Automatic annotation (TrEMBL):
Gene3D superfamilies: Immunoglobulins (2.60.40.10). Residues 31-124 form the Ig-like domain. The chain crosses the membrane at residues 6-25. It comes from the Eukaryota. This is Putative neural cell adhesion molecule l1. CDD domains: FN3. Residues 134-231 form the Fibronectin type-III domain. The keyword Membrane applies. Keywords: Membrane, Repeat, Transmembrane, Transmembrane helix.
Amino acid sequence: MCYLFAPHTLGIIIVYGLLFITSLCKAGRIFDVENIPVQKYIVQAGKSLTIPCPGVNELSLVDTLTWKTNKIIAQYANGIPLVHDQRISLLPGNFSLHFHPSVAADTAEYTCLVNERHTPESIVDLIVQDVPKRPGRPLITSFTSRAVNLSWPYTQDPRNAPVSHFIIETRSGEDGPWDQNPQIYTRNNATTYEVTGLLPFTVYSFRTIAVNQLGESPPSKESYYIVTLREVPTGKPVATIAHNTSATSIYISWKPPPADTILGE
């Protein structure tokens, strides 16, 4: 990663929806001996992208050429191009690297080395932003009869669009549908939340979805099941029969309260 600090001068150009930034800065991870210009591209995953080989045009004499990150991406030698990914092609003429489409895994610092040179004209820093990765499995840290406190792990990729908030999905019962209960939208990207409005003595599980400006992540694994605590019944039994059976005894029969008012076993 190359970090930019004042008083460096930045140039920003937007072309076909892509953000293109040029600057001079130290590229310490790849070349430690000199300052090399850096060209930065930011693109959304799924879109096509072409990055030119710095210093090369249609009139350049090129015998050999290598595009690489921490591995070789594409090569040209003896008039034959060789590319190691079907999504990527080496354009004839100017040897630009074309991604169709780009994916988040393409994020890297690229160098184009011409005619076996050891130092590139500049470094191409490509950032392909995508929807967030899935959060970790939620943990239930505490619960009552009508509320559950959740916590889940999530590590933000610093080169991706930041997570703005999370969606919490609630399932009632062991095999109930996930759309049975309304989704809960958190107010920020905090990874803890208290879910309220639950029913006593009911089986629940939960899962989370991370959201950024590009969309939603896949759902996390569901939490382990929890049974909320019991409460004192709110319903009352209803007497159906009551009569004397002798001078010293009485017979009584009743209906139990409605099941949703027992709030326990």
